[in-house]
Amino acid sequence: MSHLWQSILTDGNTQWVLLSTLLLGIASGVLGSFALLRKQSLIGDAVAHAALPGICFAFMFIGEKNFFVLLIGAAATGLLAAYTIQLITNTTRIKEDTAICLVLSVFFGLGIVLLTKVAQMPTGNQSGLDDFIFGQAASLVGRDVQLMGLTAAALIVITTLLFKEFKVSTFDPQFARGIGLPVGLLNFFFVSLLVITVVIGIQAVGVILMAALLITPAVSARYWTDSLRTMVLISGIVGGLSGAAGTLISTLGKGLSTGPFIVLSATVIFIVSLLFSPKRGLFSIILRRARNDDRLAVRFVLKKVHVWRDKSISEEFLFQETNISKIRFTRVINHLMKHGYILKSDGIISITDSGTMKAEQFRFVDEMVELKEMYPSELGSLDITWIEKQEEEALSKDQLKKLQSKMSEIYTQNPFLNIKVTAGKGGRRYEL
């Protein structure tokens, strides 16, 4: 740990690499959010693989490893790959995923062939071009890192300035055209930004893993929010943290590649999001399903007790009739007893007055749901969800009046329906 802090505080190269991977992660997360929502995530993968032949062509042309020139070559073949995918998709019957697979395999195969050719050149063995396959941030020099950092910062600024335009063209391109936005030009510009993001990141992350840095932060952010603005913000933070964490971990040992650790850091955050996000996390889903199953079991058991309210039923007989697990049945019985809906004496279950009203409420809601399914056009606008949200055992006078008013309106429009909602003794009970 002391070695890590010493590198951060004293090693200028570590500081530059850390800053560039931080900015690269933020830019990848921001643009990756739009790529995910546009269903263009795999285009980043194709572009990353297609950058390899461009790098090799640029090296063969100048004969030395000039990072800026190599990036120009990578950008050229990356843009060519991206536009080739769009051309194939728009002009043929081939679907986008098939087009991506074709372009990716062809360009990457060409890159491997050219990489072999470069290795046969007099200076090819010392070129270090194979670092672009898996990434090697430590091989970057100060000027390379400055170029990466400035380009990543520019990408973040441009995306921020064009946020509204990208948002509209992503979710509703027809509306965007209607208000005069150049959707085609925006798509062209977005793909160009995506290509630039991939190109500046391949030295640090590699052509194979760069797609993961685009997709993983965006997917992680999607688990936490339904707002695009918040998603882009979270995705940028996740990407930045992944870039910084991967860089710092790679400094702990000699020969550790930065790219794989960046991707693994992003994957850890994704797993945490997958498991623990409050809305879409697996644990949240399991808990919601368990609560819903308990709610349905409470309804079912109480209605069963209500049906046999004039008979003496044992707890064991009720358990056999309900056909639910013993653990859930015990939990349901305790819940009903706690709320005063049922009583248990010497193993015999009996229903209370409040339990009777609650059971009638459940029955009423079930019958209303069935009627809505039978007459969807006539009763589709009838909202009954509020009935079970109220805490009392049955509907109050005001609530009954509200429901009766709504039903009267439906009767006027559909006189053939014969449904009546009436208040019982004290105005707190009702029947269908």
Automatic annotation (TrEMBL):
<feature type="transmembrane region" description="Helical">
    <location>
        <begin position="258"/>
        <end position="276"/>
    </location>
</feature>
<dbReference type="InterPro" id="IPR036390">
    <property type="entry name" value="WH_DNA-bd_sf"/>
</dbReference>
<feature type="transmembrane region" description="Helical">
    <location>
        <begin position="145"/>
        <end position="163"/>
    </location>
</feature>
<keyword id="KW-1133">Transmembrane helix</keyword>
<protein>
    <submittedName>
        <fullName>Metal ABC transporter permease</fullName>
    </submittedName>
</protein>
<dbReference type="Pfam" id="PF00950">
    <property type="entry name" value="ABC-3"/>
</dbReference>
<keyword id="KW-0813">Transport</keyword>
<feature type="transmembrane region" description="Helical">
    <location>
        <begin position="231"/>
        <end position="252"/>
    </location>
</feature>
<feature type="transmembrane region" description="Helical">
    <location>
        <begin position="202"/>
        <end position="224"/>
    </location>
</feature>
<feature type="transmembrane region" description="Helical">
    <location>
        <begin position="100"/>
        <end position="119"/>
    </location>
</feature>
<feature type="transmembrane region" description="Helical">
    <location>
        <begin position="42"/>
        <end position="62"/>
    </location>
</feature>
<feature type="transmembrane region" description="Helical">
    <location>
        <begin position="16"/>
        <end position="37"/>
    </location>
</feature>
<dbReference type="InterPro" id="IPR001626">
    <property type="entry name" value="ABC_TroCD"/>
</dbReference>
<keyword id="KW-0812">Transmembrane</keyword>
<dbReference type="InterPro" id="IPR037294">
    <property type="entry name" value="ABC_BtuC-like"/>
</dbReference>
<comment type="similarity">
    <text>Belongs to the ABC-3 integral membrane protein family.</text>
</comment>
<feature type="transmembrane region" description="Helical">
    <location>
        <begin position="68"/>
        <end position="88"/>
    </location>
</feature>
<keyword id="KW-0472">Membrane</keyword>
<keyword id="KW-1003">Cell membrane</keyword>
<feature type="transmembrane region" description="Helical">
    <location>
        <begin position="175"/>
        <end position="196"/>
    </location>
</feature>
